[in-house]
Amino acid sequence: MDFLFERAAVFAVLAVIVSVIRYGLYFHSIFKRQTRPHFFSWFNWGLIISIGAYAQFQLGGDLSSYMLLFVGITCWIIAVLALFYGEKHITRSDWGAFLSALALIPVWLATKDPVITLLLIIVIDMLTFYPTIRKTYVDPSSEPPVSYFWAGLRYFFILLCVPSFSLSVLFYPFFLMVTEWGFMAFIFWRRKKLRLALIATGKAPVVEKMP
């Protein structure tokens, strides 16, 4: 038991350190007007990660649940900053994804079937991510990829905070880790595509728009 607690404590400290680095860099880029967070995404992330932290605690996640709570609170802070420094171009599809995610959250909380719960959280997170993905597709310079590397690393350490490994406890932080690193890869891909278009045309590429 002592070994399990010591392991969890070590990785909890590492998760906190990485989180401080991640959010420190992200806040810095926001205030320098290099990053434009999307309010819809960060508001819903704050909501679902806070709920996820509570669920993790109920499942015996212990220190990992407190790490998720810290992340949730930080998401709320970024959501507030997004009102002043964030993305101003809000599309109908952004509204649709935002409201759909909100509507599914009570269904997710009321569902008892673990498989359906799993599918719902995936759908909710993807809907939550959509506004950020859409505006980053249009302008990949509006999000710093290195920040999402640190975010994924943080969830990796949160995984290792779990005192006893089980699919029900591990799935949520694992899903978040994969999502963060996947988005980082998406930013690099989109930047590379626009850079190649610039080289090919010898001028600024025409930016494609998502609906």
Can you describe what's shown?
This protein is mostly helical. The protein has one domain (2-201). The chain contains seven helices and no strands. The model has no long low-confidence stretch (mean pLDDT 84).
In this structure, how is the largest beta sheet organized?
A: none
Mean pLDDT: 84
Helix content: over 70%
Shape: globular
Number of β-strand runs: 0
Radius of gyration: 18 Å
Helices, by number, come to 7
Q: Give the low-pLDDT segments.
A: none
Give a brief rundown of this model.
This protein is an all-alpha fold. The chain has helices at 2-31, 39-58, 63-85, 92-110, 114-138, 145-161, 167-201. The protein has one domain.
Q: How are the secondary structure elements laid out?
A:
Elements: H1 2-31, H2 39-58, H3 63-85, H4 92-110, H5 114-138, H6 145-161, H7 167-201
Helix pairs in contact: 1-3, 1-6, 2-3, 2-4, 2-5, 3-6, 4-5, 5-7, 6-7
Comma- or semicolon-separated keywords:
7 helices; 80% helix; 0% strand; 211 residues; mainly alpha
